[in-house]
Amino acid sequence: MSNEMAGLTGAYAVDALTGPERAEFEHHLAECGECAQEVRELREAAGMLGVAAAEEPPAELKGRVLHEIAHTRQEPPTAQPVPIGTRKARATSRLATRLAVAASVVGIGLAAVFGVAAWQSQQELDQAQQRIEQAGERGAEMARLLHAPDARIMHASEGGAVATAIVSAELGKVVFMSEHMPAAPEDKVHQLWAINEQGATSMGVLTGGDVPVTADMPGDTTKLGVTTEPAGGSQQPTTDPFMLLSLRA
Amino acid sequence: MDDGPQSAEPPLGWAGQPQPAPDARALLVEVAKGNEAAFEQLYELIVRPVFGLVRRLLRDAAQSEEVTQEVLVEVWRTATHYRPEKGGAMTWVLTLAHRRAVDRVRAEQSAADREAKVGSRSGARAFDEVSESVLGRLEQRQVRRCMSTLTELQRESVLLTYYRGYTYREAAELVGSPTATVKTRLRDGLIRLRDCLGVG
């Protein structure tokens, strides 16, 4: 088993594993320092093939890139990037893999709840799995959502606050997580809305403290929005959203 | 930006030096601090390899440009995660570019689609194309020399996965060998390439 895994370093280094295999191997990498070192070396070698393929891009590309980065916020160094390639892992993959993948994504939300960063080492992974179990229903729901074939991850930021949503139209569910969301003024709450052309549907009041929320989502939702509402929440939004997450790719 | 007569030569010489861009690492570390001027310098070092690699994988010119832009912006956005002690900046950038281009290729082809294609003649043709045009265009003498030290099956496995974005299972279909064999040859081939290039 571990030999079989160790033999996958080459295929992993050149992205030649299928989604579930990739997720499983990344799980293995976290506990195999030797494999991680070999992957680094083989990527260095493969990178030479990339350099050898160098080609002159269109001249106007530079202006577009520089313009875009001038308007793009950099990720904080502590946050682990979401392993995009693993998010479509199928239900057929091993339980451990599914937990690992779920942990890495749920980690974003759990980091907010438990004040820890997403896992990196095997020890942290174990801790993350424990935290998912502790999170009970919500953790299970997040994991389920994450493994929906059409699961997508969306980000938005406003001021210092960052919002992340994991969305599956197929399941009609969303997990909404925030970081550094300012507390609502006294007698007010933040409320999450599913927005479509007809208007807004409440997805619930955010309890504060950046606690992740799982909610049902109407199928024709195009945006998620957060507004400030009187305590207890409103039937319909009474203020403009201060944060908007577009669900269109 | 005007490089004079169009040249297929990559801008980075690497004769005798294992790391083609000695200061890319320092630049990327600067970029992580939000330094846009450093990003502009880094751009010049990485854009040709990124574009060339993405184009080789995606083929379509407009799409390649779009993905190249996405990759470069991602370099800016996630430079904060780069760990210089864990490898070179060019490798980090090209790993990101390769992953993203491959994900794009796979997202656009349904599994059924791909399987049908792998089993068909167009798959076999795709390989001929790789071995002739891609290898023929590997102008870096060192890479070419090192690739020539690989066995045929090692070379095929490396080229089909790295430049064409096939999984090792698909590559196995194409070359008509068992998947376990291709998996092993792929790793052996990359190890041989690593040792020959003196990287890692």
TrEMBL record, chain A:
Pfam families: RskA_C, zf-HC2. The chain crosses the membrane at residues 95-119. It is a single-pass membrane protein. Keywords: Cell membrane, Coiled coil, Membrane, Transcription, Transcription regulation, Transmembrane, Transmembrane helix. Residues 100-241 form the Anti-sigma K factor RskA C-terminal domain. It is found in: Cell membrane; Membrane. Residues 118-145 form a coiled coil. Residues 10-36 form the Putative zinc-finger domain. InterPro entries: Anti-sigma-K/W_factor, Anti_sigma_zinc_sf, RskA_C, Znf_put. This is Regulator of SigK. It comes from Prauserella alba. The lineage of its organism: Bacteria, Bacillati, Actinomycetota, Actinomycetes, Pseudonocardiales.
Automatic annotation (TrEMBL), chain B:
Keywords: Sigma factor, Transcription, Transcription regulation. InterPro entries: RNA_pol_sigma-70-like (IPR039425), RNA_pol_sigma-70_dom (IPR014284), RNA_pol_sigma70_r2 (IPR007627), RNA_pol_sigma70_r4_t2 (IPR013249), RNA_pol_sigma_r2 (IPR013325), RNA_pol_sigma_r3/r4-like (IPR013324), WH-like_DNA-bd_sf (IPR036388). Residues 141-193 form the RNA polymerase sigma factor 70 region 4 type domain. Residues 42-109 form the RNA polymerase sigma-70 region domain. It holds the Pfam family Sigma70_r2. The keyword Transcription applies. NCBIfam families: PRK09646.1, sigma70-ECF. Belongs to the sigma-70 factor family. ECF subfamily. This is ECF RNA polymerase sigma factor SigK. It comes from Prauserella alba. The lineage of its organism: Bacteria, Bacillati, Actinomycetota, Actinomycetes, Pseudonocardiales. The gene is sigK.
